[in-house]
Design a protein that fits this description.
The structure is a homodimer. By secondary structure, chain A is an alpha/beta fold. Chain A folds into two domains: 2-61 and 146-307, Rossmann fold, CATH 3.40.50.1000; 65-135, no CATH class. Helix content of chain A is 42%, strand content 18%. Chain A has 13 helices and eight strands. In chain A, a hairpin with a 6-residue loop joins strand 6 (263-270) and strand 7. The radius of gyration of chain A is 20 Å and the shape is globular. The interface between A and B is large, with 37 and 37 residues. The structure holds calcium ion (2 copies). One calcium ion is lined by residues 52, 54-56, 244-245, 247, 285 of chain B.
């Protein structure tokens, strides 16, 4: 009878996942933590699941999508900023030479982010990102960027929420960039998004008191920063964590290294046909330490090619 | 028919509030924002209400309750810290001379907070606060500190949540101090608490990776810091804000200075019999600018003596 019931559940939950050990492990975890007669039952207030964004909930190739936003912003606004062409990084971007622009490393990336994210009010920035996501297309697939989300993950997050879980994004990407579209795209409200942030101030703009984003880093939500971001924003150790790169290692470690039921999951990019195949040698989403230690840490490795029936919502 | 319906609602909602303009204004605001046929209807995802804590949700006299926690912590742990007696502020606290201890102003207060809040893991700090709140009594009332919450505000927050609102605390007090007891006391989970914070790091303690609170201020959530804290944590402009002091002025301003239905509320401490009466000349919860401008800003002034049937849950 138990196994019959289990079959029924597997048929109705996670229909975009192929039957197999990954799907089974996730469903079993949810069932045992939500069944009040189970020794692993977790009260609803402690059912916290955290998700990395780039490469875990949507694609991240050939570069992080937020960088496309920044580049498009810089090109669009360059007529009002003749001084940008004196900056080698920005000049390269205006000349469509991304390789040269990124040669400056972290300093160049910071310059790109600051001119395209700071100086705006929160409302201006949100509008700017929403306009961009409505009108821009990915250079390789021609899809809207928010159509390059992973449907099996969206379905999983819905399944978790129906099971009394709270779903949070914990991303190295910009918190306000993600907030601008996460509710519509993933069903995750702004206050359940954790990410990297700029400092901000409350000041008068156009006769109205507003929040203005400043050109100074407030918090970098990556690697050991992820548990810190979770602590500051969520204030509770999650019981499930999903990531795809070594930047998520500490988040999975923090989540799973505590008593009680815990599940750490790496999404492994194995699908060169429907998406991209990469791990150890990739510029984005590099996964080395995570691959080496997933098994000994008891973490699940989801094989995108084998475990997912579809990748994007409209293949 | 409309007025009949309105009478029925007033009889079942906010029973700890006396009938009158304050109760009426709050209920009318909730009704018009939740009635889908109203021109002021607000979709559930935008129904964000923010509450200051000290003096708005619980008492704050003779000093902020968090200071009692800090003092008790310092006394309890002084045997292991002989060096504390070389510090004039800490020495005064150990000698029960609070006046001398606080003469050092903000610097003294920071010292008190750092030795009593930093250096612990998040789990140690949470346990320490929970133990304290279970065992300590207010020096004047003899009540447990979490019995000095304002029952009409707790009832109001429940009413808002039943009406599809999310209730957030936005306090100048310590975020982790409040999180330790807010869920049990107010029904507000840790991720819906915004407050002042120390920096934190993810590091190995006792062979386990943990969050440790550092002796360095991360964010001060008061005055113009409150809209910034709301922006960083909630990412959405609230539509209702409740405060009691000039430290909440910018939060009420930020909340109400935007199109659409908005409600700013000051809890005015007018009840010297059941609680405390103070505003312009108080050391805690000083309210000057708020009193001067509440009317012109269209903010509601709740008169604790007149508007509330009871103050504490068990009078
Ligand atoms: Ca990632
Ligand atoms: Ca207050």
């Amino acid at each position: 009878y138990d196994s019959l019931e289990s079959v029924v559940v597997e048929e109705t939950a996670l229909t975009s996942w192929n039957d197999g050990p990954s799907k089974q492990k996730i469903i079993q975890f949810v069932e045992k933590t939500t069944d009040s007669s189970s020794p692993d039952f977790v009260p609803e207030s402690k059912r916290i699941a955290v998700f990395d964004n780039d490469g875990t909930l949507w694609a991240e190739n050939p570069v992080y999508f937020q960088l496309f936003y920044a580049i498009d912003f810089i090109k669009k606004h360059s007529p009002g900023h003749p001084e940008w062409s004196a900056n080698p990084t920005l000049k390269a971007i205006l000349e469509d030479d991304l390789q040269t622009a990124l040669e400056g490393g972290e300093k160049a990336l910071a310059e790109i982010v600051m001119v395209s994210h700071a100086g705006m009010t929160e409302d201006q920035f949100t509008s700017s990102v929403r306009d961009w996501i409505k009108t821009s297309k990915h250079p390789q697939t021609g899809k809207a960027f928010n159509q390059m989300i992973y449907y099996p993950m969206v379905e999983l997050m819905e399944y978790l929420r129906e099971s009394g879980y709270k779903t949070f994004i914990v991303s190295g990407g910009g918190i306000d960039f993600i907030r601008a579209w996460a509710e519509e795209t993933y069903g995750i409200p702004p206050y359940q998004v954790v990410g990297s942030s700029l400092k901000a101030e409350y000041t008068e703009v156009d006769g109205k008191n507003q929040i203005v984003k400043l050109p100074e880093l407030n918090f970098y939500d990556d690697k050991a920063g992820k548990p810190v971001g979770i602590h500051q924003h969520i204030g509770e150790r999650p019981i499930m964590a999903f990531g795809n790169s070594d930047g998520d290692y500490e988040m999975l470690e923090y989540t799973t290294q505590s008593p009680g039921p815990r599940l750490g999951v790496y999404i492994h990019h194995t699908d060169s046909i429907r998406e991209y195949a990469y791990d150890r040698n990739s510029l984005v989403g590099q996964l080395v330490r995570g691959l080496d230690n997933a098994e000994s840490n008891g973490w699940l490795l989801v094989d995108m090619a084998k475990d997912w029936k579809i990748v994007y919502p409209n293949p």
